[in-house]
Specification:
The chain has 117 residues and is α+β, with helices and mostly antiparallel strands. The chain folds into 2 domains: 1-61, no CATH class; 62-117, no CATH class. It has 4 helices and 4 strands, in the order E-H-H-E-H-H-E-E. The longest helix is centred in the middle third of the chain and has 24 residues, at 28-51.
Length: 117
């Protein structure tokens, strides 16, 4: 059996329901239904990716960290920025995962970043 590191991988953003209305630019009244629809699409994407041999990593996307990152990077809240933020988060998580076994420690550099020591 191959380890997860030997499979191609993909990262899927994962939003918490309480913050979904802000991320999706929806009114609170319609957010719950939109969140359920988003979860169904996300779960389908996970199933498809796994059936194609991908290792799937769910990446929690938190509103406070995203807003901090936008301010630091002087970016607007748009699709391109959300993708870029996901890449930054995934890269940070990957560096942390690779170094867990070599006694490195992750030191937060802000609400959304880590530096390895």
């Amino acid at each position: 059996m191959k380890s997860i590191n030997e499979h191609p991988s993909t990262v899927i953003p994962w939003y918490v329901e309480s913050e979904f209305a802000v991320f999706s630019n929806r009114r609170a009244g319609t957010a719950a239904q939109a969140y359920r629809a988003w979860r169904q699409r996300a779960n389908k994407a996970i199933t498809i990716a796994q059936s194609q041999g991908y290792a799937v990593q769910l990446m929690p996307v938190r509103l406070a960290a995203f807003r901090d990152w936008l301010a630091c990077e002087r970016r607007q809240d748009d699709t391109e920025s959300r993708r870029a933020f996901l890449v930054v988060c995934a890269a940070s998580a990957g560096r942390l995962a690779r170094h867990e076994s070599d006694n490195s420690r992750a030191v937060p550099t802000g609400r959304h970043g880590f530096q390895l020591h």
